[in-house]
Amino acid sequence: MPAPLPDGGREWLDAECERVLVRGRWSKADVWLARLPDGRRGVVKEFRGKPWPGRWWGRLQIAREARFLAFLSDLRVAPRLIARPHPLVLVMEALSGRPLYHCEGTPEGRAALEPLVQAVRRVHGAGVVHLDLRGRENVQLERDGRVVLVDWASAVRLPPGTVRHRLFFGPLSRIDESALVKWRQKLAPDTLTAEDRRLLRSFRFWRRLWPVKRRAGRRRG
């Protein structure tokens, strides 16, 4: 069973903004680094300033991501959920590391490849598929060498042993597997196999045909 959600007391809404990380479009969350009421630093993800269609969509996204963060808390592969003080606001721990793509071409990045693979294996073992591991900001490398996966709003849970797991887990998990191959290409390209290269060519072909292209929110320094 998923872990219970942390206390969502409204005092968390008084968090002091230290820095805006992402200014999302109408359907994307604003994300900012905050000093929380208890003195800790946290990351606040919210839709409160969006027009009503964005708030409606944001309510669903916040609820969904909060459930996944709570469910995955024991696996240590996702940020820890601190509170959900409002239907449009999520507060999670501030990570101490940096995006893994900053380590491309370095021994540090190469060493992080296996922890990344193991993190995805643990997630899949719990019946969860992330579905957005290609997002370069969605894989973080902590100072202790641990890999943390962020942005679970697109994730899907298919409990092992269920009919939907048997029907859909294989095809959906291959999306994460193809993302791992892409990360392998970035971090340790000499380890790519012939099958890996075939998968990359196939993905590039289908991506050219896909009508919707990724557009990130505007990042602020």
Order the strands across the largest sheet as they lie in space: 4-5-3-2-1-11
Radius of gyration: 18 Å
Going by CATH, the architecture of the largest domain would be Orthogonal Bundle
Helix-strand sequence = EEEHEEEHEEEEHHE
Mean pLDDT: 88
Q: What is the assembly state of the chains in this entry?
A: single chain
Number of helices: 4
Structural class: alpha+beta
Compute the number of structural domains: 2
Strand content: 15-25%
Tell me the distance between the termini. 39 Å
Biggest sheet, in brief?
6 strands, antiparallel
The shape, in one word, is: globular
Structure write-up:
Mean pLDDT is 88; it is low at 1-5. The radius of gyration is 18 Å and the shape is globular. The strands form 3 sheets. Strands 4-5-3-2-1-11 form a 6-stranded antiparallel beta sheet, covered by helices on one side. Strands 6-8-9 form a 3-stranded antiparallel beta sheet. 36% of the residues lie in helices and 20% in strands. The longest helix has 25 residues, at 163-187. The chain is built from 4 helices and 11 strands, in the order βββαβββαββββααβ. It is α+β, with helices and mostly antiparallel strands. The protein has 2 domains: 10-93, Phosphorylase Kinase, domain 1 (2-Layer Sandwich), CATH 3.30.200.20; 98-209, Transferase(Phosphotransferase), domain 1 (Orthogonal Bundle).
How would the blueprint of this fold be written?
Blueprint (H helix, E strand, L loop, with lengths): L15 E8 L6 E6 L5 E6 L5 H20 L9 E6 L2 E5 L4 E2 L7 H19 L2 E2 L9 E3 L5 E3 L6 E2 L5 H25 L6 H16 L8 E2 L2
Antiparallel strand pairs: 1-2, 1-11, 2-3, 3-5, 4-5, 6-8, 7-10, 8-9
Helix pairs in contact: 2-3
